[in-house]
């Protein structure tokens, strides 16, 4: 779990303003959303029992990225600097971020910055793309990306670690 970052703004004032706006919103639910569920058919290919992390493949800025960790508990989307280097995107101008992240081996990690990139989940007719803000971190990791709540909520992703799948509404 990664916490901190500039998800709600890079200052206390920005976070409080966002909180007030959300509190004042009336019913923001969409009434045309499909029901998303998981059933026995979604277990095809999954070896049970397991305690595996949910790791997927995604397309980011026209690159296929393996080892994308889906983390419902992370308050930011993280892309590791080494992944940006491998994608030849490391020289892009990053937006400055001053808020530390916590959760990397229990100590604060200060991001290199933020970068907004197109993120595509799924394939064919069952795919969805959204411009996604990633916090860039220069620290070793088994993963290339940690997909946190901001992207999951934006794309309305429902994850099941038991089924080792994600689902989201598409047109």
Structural description of this entry:
- The chain starts with a strand and ends with a strand.
- The strands form 3 sheets. It has a 6-stranded mixed barrel with strand order 2-3-9-4-8-7. A 3-stranded antiparallel β-sheet has the order 1-5-6, with no helix packed on it. Strands 10-11 form a two-stranded antiparallel ribbon.
- The longest helix is centred in the N-terminal third of the chain and has 13 residues, at 12-24.
- The protein has one domain (3-25, 48-167): Cathepsin D, subunit A, domain 1.
- The protein has helices at 12-24, 81-86, 149-154, and strands spanning 3-4, 55-60, 63-70, 78-80, 101-104, 107-109, 113-123, 126-137, 145-147, 158-160, 165-167.
- The radius of gyration is 17 Å and the shape is globular.
- By secondary structure, the protein is α+β, with helices and mostly antiparallel strands.
- The chain is built from 3 helices and 11 strands; from the N terminus they run βαβββαβββββαββ.
Helix and strand arrangement:
Elements lengths: L2 E2 L7 H13 L30 E6 L2 E8 L7 E3 H6 L14 E4 L2 E3 L3 E11 L2 E12 L7 E3 L1 H6 L3 E3 L4 E3 L4
Parallel strand pairs: 3-9, 4-8
Antiparallel strand pairs: 1-5, 2-3, 2-7, 4-9, 5-6, 7-8, 10-11
